[in-house]
Task: inverse folding
């Protein structure tokens, strides 16, 4: 899906002058907001941004979004860690 919108020319010039990836920043901000509103999962967010779980956690932290993990996800993580732990 392609989403586009207009911003004032002076803002565009200022952002472009600083070498910012405006499209990338807008895309990331939009996807993080969808996650914050519970419209997409953390996994979907990471997939859309091309990131692994650790990198996705970092993006959410940079945007001031606390990780939300369900009881089921926490239990699955605990099982996974128990299997990986040396005996």
Result:
């Amino acid at each position: 899906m392609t989403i586009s919108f207009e911003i004032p020319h002076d803002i565009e010039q200022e952002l472009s002058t600083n070498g910012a990836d405006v499209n990338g920043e807008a895309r990331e901000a939009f996807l993080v907001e969808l996650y914050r509103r519970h419209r997409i999962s953390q996994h979907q967010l990471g997939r859309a941004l091309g990131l692994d779980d650790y990198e996705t956690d970092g993006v959410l932290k940079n945007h001031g979004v606390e990780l939300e993990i369900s009881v089921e996800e926490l239990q699955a993580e605990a099982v996974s860690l128990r299997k990986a732990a040396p005996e």
